[in-house]
Amino acid sequence: MERVNYIPQMTTELKNKLNISVNGIEVSCGTESRILDALQRAGFDVPTLCYDERSGPQGTCRLCLVDVEIDGQTQQVASCTAFAADGMKVETHSDSITEYRKTILELLLSETSSPANCPRCLYLKKCDLHYAAEEYGAKWDAFESLVPREKASDDNPFIQRDYDYCISCFRCTNICNDWEQVGAITVEGRGQESSISTFFNNNLLESPCTFCGQCINTCPTGALTDRKIIGTTSAANVERTKSVCPYCGVGCGIHLLTEDGQIRGTEPDFGAPSRGSLCVKGQFASWEFVKSEERLKYPLLKEDGVFKRASWDDALNLITSRFTAIRDESGPDSLVLWSSARSVTEANYLMQKFARIGIGTNNIDNCSRT
Amino acid sequence: MAVMVGKGAMTNSIEELAGADLLLVVGSNTTEAHPVISLRMKRAVKNGAKLIVIDPRTIELTNWATRHLKINIGTDIPLFNAFANVMIREGLYDREYVENRTEGFDELARHVELYTPEYASEICGISAEEIIATAREYAAASGKAAICYTLGITEHSCGSHNVQSIANLGMLGGNFGKPNAGVNPLRGQNNVQGASDSGALPTDLPGYQKIERPGVREKFEKVWGAELPKRRGITKITAMDQMLRGRVRGVYIMGENTVISDPNTNHAQAALEATDFIVVQDLFMTDTAKLADVVLPAASFAESDGTFANSERRVQRVRPAIEPVGEARTDVDILLDVMGRFGIAQNLQTASDVWDEMRQLSPLFSGITYERLDAEGGIQWPCPTEDHPGTPYLHKDEMDSGMPGYFAPVDHIPPAEPTDSEYPLTLTTGRRRSTYHTGTQTGRASGFDLLVPSELAEINEFDAEQMDLVDGQIVTISSRRGSVEVPVKITNRSPHGTVFMSFAFPELTQTNRLTSDAYDFITETPEFKACAVRIDRIAPLQSDTIIAGDQDQS
């Protein structure tokens, strides 16, 4: 067993580095870097469909092949699996490599339905497969189309499974089995016949699936997508705002998806320390409450036991006069303020400052005990 | 823990857990309450680490555990004292570390002499051999053993003693101030760390600066341009008692569903009703808001600018993605307005201005700026200067307090409300992965009713048989304070004699009508994890009272 003692890098500076040359440009990387890591860190665009840094290299899609010159000899290696070596010369886009990638993509495309109907491309953003296909000019109908895989009819409300777009990269099963260690999905069959399935071909709701949504986020095509978003957005107009999941104390990074000023869903932020991880709440429950019809929309004052709509001015003036009156009658310690572990730190700061110099009491607490 | 080593926060980083040689997880249902942290634990096991789970329930994480100590509810202190006993008796503790970095070892050694594995075994309900083996494993992983705990430790009337007994073990093993180690409380809510960081505490100003410490108030008074009250304030728990006595007459509640989330709902409700004036600032008309005189519509996190601090002390930016709904305003905006009406002159307009004032006053965050957060992502405090990279793990060269780590000899205190013939079962409350807290958020997400349709009272097969209950049957669960109706779920996850419930479905089941008033005498954290209850059948059993989708996975 290979032991991985990962400690987050404290600085961007590398302690032990080696130098490689990429397309004639000098690039530094860590001594135990794979070539693809070094290329991506340095900003070189090398396509890959099967690689997820969390599951490690698979070497199955072969798209990340690069030319490497070692001892005067040029070899083609999968950059996701091969380690960088000092003085190595790498070419990422030689003519032969480019042609090779195009052919691989055309073979993959022949296993899938038309790019025109890809759910990820239509509603979220260009998927990795179709992005690469466009970049390399790979045509969908260059090879005879293989019989598309059957659609999984799975009416769970979270994960849409459309294996017409599956390219058998196995990122979803790797994430589910190795990273999440949930084991809800597996590869069934061999070679051309292989497909993604649950055990006994059950629906996901009857499987051990926790609906963390990691399979849909690692999927490089439209095979697995967020059913709550699909059909409600258009890839061209959807905007992303970096934020943090509003549930537990782990603080996973998310992107809030919006269109026309409306919130439409979330995606994990792969650049955050949480490395793209989310659970069922962050993936599927972190935004619908925001647009709930039950949200309070204007201030309310209670009159004779019934809430009536009020202006902000009236509401805040009432707070000022009542709090001032109670303080004057019974002293500042007859008032308490409870701040919120759900609100931003800045609001909590203001609340305690208000208690201390506005009211004149240290009777400020937050919900950290419940 | 703050009294022993300086700061009551996760000593290490979440990602570091994956690199530990041994993880000791106690009172934390991690796969349900902190699913993403559990991934790092599972990865550690995959890397060859030992995972010891200490929990009365057979929680999901035990599937990955190399050892599960199924102790009786509320018997953590005798267990941890017994671990210390074994490590000291067998000379397995980190002598050099204890000598150089701690104080009070001799007192601890004398104190835990009584807690032999055999003695603890009787209280905890596990074998002495298991206790000895666990202590040896923990000692063998010295310097690379991480302890994680959650509310299963703190939500007891002896919560702070629980924590101290755990920290004792951390110091004996030499595990403070090293990567992939430490003692790590996993925080429950997204910004519970930030709320405390910001000084929303009755005893602390921002950055954990004690109100009563000389020189602290003066520093704030200078910047705030006003005098500060000298006497420490009261906690929520005390405040509610004071409300019933008429001494607290008004309350301003921001974003908290006190009535549902606090223990003993009837008591909390009566306390609030006894006041003259209540302001609630929230997203929804919660049960707490219903009691208010003024309800202010607040913006959600998706509509707000600011920061959250997570469990590993990492400050991260939250950004507005949309405009607030209706006339709702952000908490920052509302409070600035209110403060203006109270005549407080301050030159603050935005969340960023507020943060800058806070960091200027607290060395803990001085080096964290919005610009850096945007460019670098989250930064972990302490971060004293703008060129400081942040701190992945605390207590590196010395304890954060600047003093030696103090061992705290503590004794076993049983839960405040023991079971008896009238209330023979122990209720323990907690979380489930797909529901959250009082359900104001998850209750509004479509499809989640398919995952957990309603509150369920989880009871053991043996108990169910004794009481003649079937899966899905609705029963009445009562404590000395109130009762609720709820379907039972028969599962051997719960040990004999216990009932497990969450509190995420307040429309139908207000679990905290049952929970007790008892709380830790130091932190005033309520004892949510143990109170005495009874179960009564509702006769006759009607088929339409069984919640759909909850019948034995048919």
Would you write up a description of this structure?
The complex is a heterodimer of chains A (370) and B (554). Chain A has a five-stranded mixed β-sheet with strand order 2-1-5-3-4, covered by helices on one side. Chain A has a three-stranded antiparallel β-sheet with strand order 10-11-12. Chain A has nine helices and 16 strands. Chain A is α+β, with helices and mostly antiparallel strands and 370 residues long. In chain A, 24% of the residues lie in helices and 21% in strands. Chain B is an alpha/beta fold and 554 residues long. Helix content of chain B is 30%, strand content 16%. Chain B has 20 helices and 21 strands. In chain B, helix 13 packs across helix 15. The chains are: A alpha+beta (370), B alpha/beta (554).
Comma- or semicolon-separated keywords:
heterodimer, A: 370 residues, alpha+beta, Ubiquitin-like (UB roll), Alpha-Beta Plaits, 4 domains, 5-stranded mixed β-sheet, disordered N terminus, B: 554 residues, alpha/beta, Dimethylsulfoxide Reductase, domain 2, Rossmann fold, Barwin-like endoglucanases, 5-stranded parallel β-sheet, 21 strands, globular
What is the strand and helix layout of this fold?
The complex is a heterodimer of chains A (370) and B (554).
Chain A (H helix, E strand, L loop, with lengths): L16 E6 L2 E6 L4 H7 L23 E6 L2 E6 L10 E3 L3 H15 L9 H5 L4 H8 L23 E3 L9 H9 L5 E4 L6 E4 L15 H5 L5 E3 L12 E6 L8 E7 L2 E7 L11 H5 L15 E4 L2 E4 L2 H19 L4 E5 L5 H15 L4 E3 L4
Chain B lengths: L1 H4 L16 E5 L3 H4 L1 H12 L3 E5 L12 E3 L6 H14 L5 H7 E2 L1 H8 L4 H8 L3 H13 L4 E5 L1 H4 L4 H14 L10 E3 L6 H6 L6 E2 L3 E2 L5 H9 L11 H9 L5 E5 L3 H4 L3 H9 L3 E6 L11 E4 L8 E4 L4 E5 L12 H11 L9 H11 L8 H7 L2 E2 L24 E2 L18 E5 L18 H4 L5 E3 L1 H7 L6 E5 L4 E8 L7 E4 L29 E7 L17
Parallel strand pairs in B: 1-2, 1-5, 2-3, 4-15, 5-6, 9-10, 10-11, 16-20, 17-19
Antiparallel strand pairs in B: 7-8, 12-13, 13-14, 16-21, 17-20, 18-19, 18-21
Helix pairs in contact in B: 4-7, 4-8, 4-10, 7-8, 13-15
